Amino acid sequence: MMSVVCYSDLRDTPLRILLYGLNFSPELTGIGKYTGEMAAWLADRGHQVHVVAAPPYYPAWCIRADYRGQAFRTEHPGSGLTVYRTPLYVPAKPSGVKRMLHLFSFMLGSVPRMLREIFWRPEVVWTVEPTFFGAPLALLVGRAAGAGTWLHVQDYEVDAAFDLGLLPAKGAVHAVALALERYFTRAFDRVSSISPMMVARAQQKGVSPEQAVLFPNWVDVAAIQPEGDGEQNAFRQELGLAGKTILLYSGNMGNKQGLESLAPLAASFASDPSVHFVFCGDGAFRPQLETLVAGLRNVTLLALQPMERLNALLNAADVHLLLQRAGAADLVMPSKLTGMLSSGRPVLATADRGTMLAEVISGMGEEGALGLTVSPGDADALHAAAKRLIESPELRRVQGQNARQYAVRWLSKEEVLTRFEQQLQQMGHANEKRSR
Q: How far apart are CA 420 and CA 148, in angstroms?
């Protein structure tokens, strides 16, 4: 059971909010996108927001050129918003050990800046997992400043480390890692995550129902919305794909997405000139994907697109592809899903039965099915589901409408962030009363 809060007695006063996280704007995908939008929204609402983050490097795994050579950097992107960049190690080819060093290096590099933030006296210290390495430092700063502390879980990093073989699944290391995770997670005043199933997992790790909060990823439903005539879409025109049925994958091209299934799927439709695949994004898996699809004439590869072109890109699709490895969908609700749904197109996803992703896509809500799901790694089922959507424009229309309705009802940026702000006000107000 998640906490329910009455806000009628809270004063609508500006807060001093410290956001501590590895990724931040101008990164266009994943956690950085959401934390950047959240910080700007809070500052626009009149709050004083400080951000301690790494320089932009994701999903290319390369620090952006204009940020290189500056160990520490201060930015003022808007009124009420200050961003402090701190150094970290970014491996060109992230392996398991190198990823761990990468995450740990951010925590070490941010120590001086975070300790200085104690003297700013934030009223709320908010941090995001990944990386969980930063959780102890966030707690230390929060306690020293007398602030409320909030841990937001985008990805259960420790669980993922076990599943991906970065940490041993049994033995002393496993037990110590779980014990440390449980201890530090429970120490936060609030622990939130992006789906009910992930909030339930937090409670399984010892978080009380009073601490547990649902804080889903959101989408600007005004900026990402269905376009009228798909054939007039800018990307279709530029790529010469008018009249074709387009299946689109757009987003981070990482190793846990299961993107090795994209090439066989495209190859299975190579003899049908009416079907085309567009794969757009960047990440550690992109070079391998380029090799896998070499020679496939029904595939177009695009670089990661700027935000101002995102709506046109998403509307170029007839079907959105959302692929994940087996066992991943119960740990992660992909951030790219929100834009897919808001664009009013059906989603073809690989997700294990019973996971939150499978339930959302299959139609657990009043809106009905938002697309189709198949088991990860089942190439035949993936082909069959894609064929069904390709051959049924009416099914695509109905499921696309359902997807849009779901996004408007549950994922609207204003609705999600307003509820979040109310929780922050409650936390700041409670700390003020304790300090009297």
A: 14
